[in-house]
Design goal:
- With 123 residues, the chain is an alpha+beta fold.
- The protein is 41% helix and 20% strand.
- The chain is built from three helices and four strands; from the N terminus they run αβαββαβ.
- A four-stranded antiparallel beta sheet has the order 2-3-1-4.
- The longest helix is centred in the first third of the chain and has 25 residues.
- It is elongated and about 70 Å long.
- The termini are far apart.
Length: 123
């Protein structure tokens, strides 16, 4: 086998699965999550695990900037996490009940932060 043929074969071994996998998944009816799929706003009275979310950002650096602001007003245990949809979220997960979470949302908004309650992602 010539070097050119070997390179072509090696490239095909890498590229074909990368292109074929999304097509096979889509043909099976599955779809990749959208950004909206990663935001699960908690309904009033929700009893599942809750997160206080302060925002999502496109880059880790932007999320780290928001985290500094969030920690600066007292949420020292807040952290940055990937949201599963290629974005970064600033989150505090010490919420024990919907009532506590709603109070924390009001407190955060009073401090000039955007905040809302979300149901914790599965897993």
């Amino acid at each position: 086998m010539s070097r050119a043929a070997a390179r072509l074969a090696a490239t095909a071994i890498i590229v074909v699965p990368l292109l074929a996998y999304p097509l096979v998944v889509a043909a099976d009816g599955a779809r990749f999550p959208s950004r909206d799929d990663c935001v699960r706003i908690a309904a009033e009275g929700e009893t599942a695990g809750l997160d206080l979310v302060f925002g999502r950002r496109d880059t880790r650096a932007e999320a780290d900037e928001l985290l500094e602001k969030v920690r600066g007003v007292g949420y020292v245990d807040a952290e940055v996490r990937g949201d599963g949809c290629t974005r970064w979220k600033v989150v505090y997960d010490g919420i024990e009940s919907y009532a506590q979470g709603a109070s924390s949302v009001a407190e955060a908004r009073g401090a000039g932060l955007e905040a809302w309650l979300e149901v914790e992602p599965p897993g």
